[in-house]
Amino acid sequence: MCPSLFLAGTCAACRLVVQKRTVAGPFNQGAERTHMSSEQEIQPVIGVIGGSGLYDIDGLENKEWRRVETPWGEPSDELLFGTFEGVKCVFLPRHGRGHPIPPSELNFRANIDALKRAGVTDILSLSAVGSLKEELPPGHFVLVDQFIDRSFARIKTFFGTGCVAHVSMADPVSHRILDVVEREGRKLGISLIRGGTYLVMEGPQFSTRAESHLYRSWGCSVVGMTNMPEAKLAREAEMNYATVAMVTDFDCWHPDHDSVTVEAVVKVMKGNAENARRLVKAIIPVLGQKRPVDPSAERALDFALITAPEKRDPALMAKLDAVAGRILNAG
Ligand SMILES: CSC[C@H]1O[C@H](OP(=O)(O)O)[C@H](O)[C@@H]1O
Ligand SMILES: Nc1ncnc2[nH]cnc12
Asked: Which UniProt keywords apply (predicted)?
């Protein structure tokens, strides 16, 4: 047990592990982030998580697929590193190229840790969803601002016995990112709605009609299988997160529409993907501008850790090097 891990420079053995892992990604800013103050400017690195139908990203220069190791296991795929108009970007196909991984088997921790390790500051998630509202037909993009997490077979935290943390999820998405997505999306003429609740179901089967009606009665806008625990883990890793939920179907509640099938989702996603690509190209140059630290996410751990230093588990602390290095290594 090392009681002094939070005090940088006091435990040579533990720090060795931390340092070895922190430098893994080519865009990593871990060292600067460790000591950043909220007045400090940072150079964002944009991460894009592509959902169903989005397994690559257009227009990147200096493209390179690269494997990133994490202490949580394998991410869904290699990460695609590149630049777009000079902005550093990292793309991850959520289900892997060719879509081999179902929602419940996604290694969400490895995915988020890998992006963090790669230096990503801002994550834009692109997801196919079913609509739970008449006014959100297929082809619409919903800029989600809330989630209801009904997933139940997933590991939902980086923390645990030996280092307990409780971050706030009251405002789970970055409104700074959504402002940019909304403005650029409207300029492109994409049908989008700002705000909405994404119901996360476990899957992989689609909902029963009773479930679909239940989610509607809760006021949810869209239903999908992937954005939790992704958003929770991004918050724990102090990364900004926002989702563009792209409607592909009316799930199974609508009396005038067939119940959702993969065939229908894929067909609509082909059109949605084109708009998603236009949108991503428009927002990256804006999101990639230098900006002040965004405390809502980038300071999420400031008041979240509760485990006394002498009760902390060195092995877990070492695994948290990328996710919580800013605070664990603070001198
Ligand atoms: C292929 S339809 C169901 C599948 O699509 C969505 O995934 P993603 O959010 O990665 O686009 C949905 O959540 C399901 O995983
Ligand atoms: N109706 C639906 N339910 C869950 N996930 C989806 N992804 C796309 N459509 C969906």
From this structure: Glycosyltransferase, Purine salvage, Transferase
